[in-house]
Please model this.
Amino acid sequence: MLSRNPQSGDADEVARPFCLCWDKKEPVQWRELSKCSCGEEEEVFEWKWSNPEARSQVVMSDDGKQVTFHPYYSSGTAAVRGDTPLVHNNHYYWEVKMLSETYGTDIMVGIGSGKVPDSQYTFTSLLGQDSESYGLSYLGPVRHDAAEVRGSAGFCRGSIIGVRLDMWAGTLEFFINRRPQGVCIYNLRRHEALFPMICSTAAQSTMRLIYSASWRASLLVEAAKSLASSTTLRPDVHLPPGLWNTFKSHFWLTLPTEVSGDRESETSSTKSAESASSAGRVGRVRRRNWLMLPRTTPFMRQILL
Model:
């Protein structure tokens, strides 16, 4: 159902590639960057990259998936964003693969509002330098508002970086080679919309979008995630073909999520207080939404096929 990192262990202390295709340390020709297709089994692309205004700093493939920053030399920081805004009440997951060597001030994957610039004539960690953006650096830190909010092993050539954005709960979580790095950002619903973003200061650095999917938030999504995790733990459980195909194309539903204990208890207590104060209204809304689910969600239609 899901490609796993063949080199995964209990903990990654250093950045590692997703597969063994990147073991060679020799320089790779630009035309050979796309030779490895490991982890790219599912052809799902709900959005692609959008050409920035500063096009001299970015070369983009015709299909809008692969981006090369600073094709000749670097004079600062360049960024690109997705062509579709990420709005409230949806779950989003996407992955990019790092195709070139990582070096320089920073190479980052993350999200930002429409206020984040496409380029700067300074060498900086663009995603996370203010309150409008959030980014994972190849060096390891997750940055927001000019501060490091969480650490990780970072990523290197051949790594797959996943981003799971929950615009229903307002949380952000990064994955490296499909291993969770923990929920690191909360309160994202304060933004009306966000955009997927990548940025780099390194000359001739290349990244490719390999997957981008979304799902409307509903009780059915939560049930699907629970069922997917149970199925992963119980290989003897046999699913209907329609449900199996859904989990295969939306494999990110099976990826585990790590939440810190303090934040989890804080969130639970907050939700308990809110539900106690408005139990009657919430009950009516939940009942109405539940009755509407079989008609309005593509998930149910796929199960019935």
Observations:
- The longest helix spans residues 279-296.
